[in-house]
Amino acid sequence: MLESAQNTSVMQSYLSYLQEMSRKISQRQGMENVLYRKTKKSPSFYRASKDIEQSYLRQVKEHLDKEGDRQLFFGNGLVLGTIQKNNIQKAVAAPLISLLVDLEFDERGRTLTWDVVRESVSLNYDLMILMLGQDNDEDGDSPEWTEGGIDILSLEAFEDIEQDFETVLKQPRSSELLKAEISEKVFGKIQSSVSEFRLTLFSEQAYTPDLLEGSIRQSQKLVFYNHQFLFASLMPNQLSTHTALRQLLLEVG
Prior knowledge:
The protein is an alpha+beta fold. The chain has helices at residues 2-25, 54-66, 125-131, 152-169, 180-193, 212-217, 239-252; strands at residues 47-48, 70-85, 88-105, 112-123, 201-202, 223-234. Residues 10-19, 21-26 and 135-148 have low confidence and may be disordered.
């Protein structure tokens, strides 16, 4: 009995380690701007989560079937504005939290359904890297998050948020990850702990697509909208591995 418990503990520790490593490199795929001025080849497919229709889902699926490196995501919380890095103004139109979305036809093959993969939940580390001034790779081909350059309060905030995600996932009501309350909680924790986020404004205004252009072109500060939406983007490196490890860890635990 004792040996079995020890083996389980060792497995959990090892899976946790692998999960942590995969999380730290599942970034640098342009998640700091998923909405603003996207191309015809790589459209954003933005849609408020409360306004999802069959025509939209079919259009997205047709696109994703052709573009195998892209995926549909659920964004919880939206950060908009511009930020200056290396004397260059960069547009920010980023989800604060993102989760993968699965698209599948029903048993009759007529109706498309969408389901959020809750185990894929992640803080937007592309946005964190940009805000923390570690966006040194202009080509965006490799991760540039070096923990040695991030203050301890920021690291602790990120780890606390990840632990909060893990705690919610272990509960029967993991759908909490999709609600506005957790987005507001995460934003509040980051704003109070990460100095680079303290000037980010919290908007009481409901987000609508007509606010996008003005928020990017006219605002010199970032603005947070507690908004839930779907969007298409490149599949981050190692995200599928990270999600699979998290699912396995939850089963073992």
